[in-house]
């Protein structure tokens, strides 16, 4: 079982993994793009990610969640990864981090 500190460290590692996955249409990682709505880590190393896509018709709707699952699963302490897609609330550019908005020239 993981301690609270280890769970926080794992959550931080998961965020770093997510920051290395990019939306193919927008040159910003999916975390700063605001596609990750929730991230939970259990004391058994299970990771649950609630995410969205920029639109329901996103061309990577089939592959992006699988990529997230596979890359997060590579972390040593992770025992299971569940990725759930939601469109509630719908993604909007205001969900992007300030850094992402600056990178894309959105003010």
From TrEMBL:
InterPro entries, per database record? Fe-S_Maturation_MIP18 (IPR052339), FSCA_dom_sf (IPR034904), MIP18-like (IPR002744), SUF_FeS_clus_asmbl-assoc (IPR014291)
Q: Which residues cross the membrane?
A: none
Q: Which residues form the MIP18 family-like domain?
A: 12-83
Q: Which Gene3D superfamilies match?
A: Fe-S cluster assembly (FSCA)
Domain of life according to the entry = Bacteria
Q: A Pfam family this protein belongs to?
A: FeS_assembly_P
Coiled coil regions in record: none
Query: Entry's PANTHER family?
Result: FE-S PROTEIN MATURATION AUXILIARY FACTOR YITW (PTHR42831:SF1)
Protein name (database record): SUF system Fe-S cluster assembly protein
Q: Which organism is it from?
A: Thermaurantimonas aggregans
């Amino acid at each position: 079982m993981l301690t609270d500190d280890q769970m926080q460290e794992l959550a931080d590692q998961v965020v770093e993994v997510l920051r290395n996955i990019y939306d193919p249409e927008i040159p910003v990682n999916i975390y700063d793009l605001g596609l990750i709505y929730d991230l939970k880590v259990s004391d058994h190393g299970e990771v649950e990610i609630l995410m969205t896509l920029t639109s329901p018709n996103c061309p990577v709707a089939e592959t992006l969640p699988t990529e997230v699952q596979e890359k997060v699963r590579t972390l040593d302490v992770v025992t299971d990864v569940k990725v759930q897609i939601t469109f509630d609330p719908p993604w909007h550019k205001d969900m992007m981090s300030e850094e992402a908005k600056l990178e894309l020239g959105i003010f």
